[in-house]
């Protein structure tokens, strides 16, 4: 927390102008992140934004904090390594549905099960927007709005919340880019949660998926408290319509690495280094 003058959301913006398409949902995610940072009075010097590759992964450049624009799909690996090395930092990882669930899918699964204390924001627009409209892991199997898939991709889309739950994520929420205030609240809760927090954001891409403007009439807020039983959450995530927003599941459990494992002395490091000498 900062002990200086309380900052506003605009104070957390770097001044670099975003180059997303007009109407892109990522603008709302950007604004929600800075609102959450201001609400929590987070120190810019103690915060790091980590991303992979894609439209959404440009976001660290737009936030006035430390940032790392990484390799495609590897944002979570970098973010976890950073948090383990510097547990005093607030670390947020971010990416899109392609970056997070396709090339980065393996890292996502293991990030969920390791439960390192970071926040992962997946901006899902169900399309590869930066590379001109290919189907992504979350694209509907009958989506035929692209010349690249004139009859639809023909494969079932991922269910990110179900995948996260099955992999061991203890905190799972969903937000919609058309409701930035609720999203900011969820991001703040995710940052404060002690463990791996996964926020799945429905972030519309009206350039390649103009039909996503219909989401506004479909999304509905969860009125019940977050589920704490994994079996009940599994039933929800496998059978819901995917348009329910809010905190869906929350379970407190031990983070990684354990304190005993994380406390490495200089002597232990020297001993380990000596064992590799030839």
In summary, what is this structure?
The protein is α/β, with parallel strands linked by helices and 278 residues long.
Task: List descriptors.
alpha/beta, 278 residues
Q: What is the radius of gyration computed over CA atoms, rounded to a whole number of angstroms?
A: 19 Å
The CATH C-level class name:
Alpha Beta
Helix content: 25-40%
Shape: globular
Elements, N to C (H/E): HEEHEHHEHEHEHEHEHH
The separation of the N and C termini measures: 47 Å
CATH topology: Rossmann fold
What's the count of strands? 8
- Averaged pLDDT: 92
How does this model look, in words?
The protein has a single domain (9-275), classed as Rossmann fold (3-Layer(aba) Sandwich). The chain has helices at 26-40, 75-85, 97-101, 105-114, 160-167, 180-192, 215-218, 230-239, 259-262, 266-275; strands spanning 47-51, 66-69, 90-96, 119-124, 171-176, 197-202, 220-221, 244-250. Strands 2-1-3-4-6-5-8-7 form an 8-stranded mixed beta sheet, with helices on both faces. 32% of the residues lie in helices and 15% in strands. The protein has 278 residues and is an alpha/beta fold.
Topology:
Elements: H1 26-40, E1 47-51, E2 66-69, H2 75-85, E3 90-96, H3 97-101, H4 105-114, E4 119-124, H5 160-167, E5 171-176, H6 180-192, E6 197-202, H7 215-218, E7 220-221, H8 230-239, E8 244-250, H9 259-262, H10 266-275
Parallel strand pairs: 1-2, 1-3, 3-4, 4-6, 5-6, 7-8
Antiparallel strand pairs: 5-8
């Amino acid at each position: 927390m900062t002990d200086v003058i309380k900052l506003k959301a605009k104070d957390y913006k770097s001044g670099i102008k975003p180059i997303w398409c007009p109407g892109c949902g990522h603008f709302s995610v950007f604004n929600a992140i800075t609102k959450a940072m201001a609400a929590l009075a987070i120190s810019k010097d103690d915060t790091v934004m980590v991303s992979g590759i894609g439209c959404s992964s440009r976001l660290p450049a737009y936030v006035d904090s430390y940032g790392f624009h990484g390799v495609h799909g590897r944002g979570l690996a970098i973010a976890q390594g950073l948090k383990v090395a510097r547990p005093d930092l607030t670390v947020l990882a971010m990416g899109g549905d392609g970056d997070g669930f396709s090339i980065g899918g393996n890292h996502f699964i293991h990030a969920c099960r390791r439960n390192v204390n970071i926040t992962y924001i997946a901006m899902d627009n169900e399309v590869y927007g930066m590379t001109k409209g290919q189907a992504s892991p979350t694209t509907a199997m009958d989506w035929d709005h692209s010349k690249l898939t004139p009859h639809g991709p023909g494969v079932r889309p991922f269910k990110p919340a179900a995948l996260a739950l099955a992999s061991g994520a203890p905190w799972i929420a969903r937000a919609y880019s058309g409701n930035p205030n609720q999203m900011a609240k969820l991001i703040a809760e995710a940052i404060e949660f002690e463990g791996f927090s996964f926020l799945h954001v429905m972030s519309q891409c009206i350039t390649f998926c103009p039909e996503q403007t219909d989401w506004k009439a479909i999304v509905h807020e969860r009125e019940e408290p977050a589920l704490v039983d994994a079996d009940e959450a599994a039933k929800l995530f496998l059978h819901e319509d995917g348009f329910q927003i809010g905190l869906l599941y929350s379970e407190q459990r031990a983070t990684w690495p354990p304190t005993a494992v994380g406390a490495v002395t200089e002597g232990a490091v020297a001993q380990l280094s000596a064992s590799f000498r030839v």
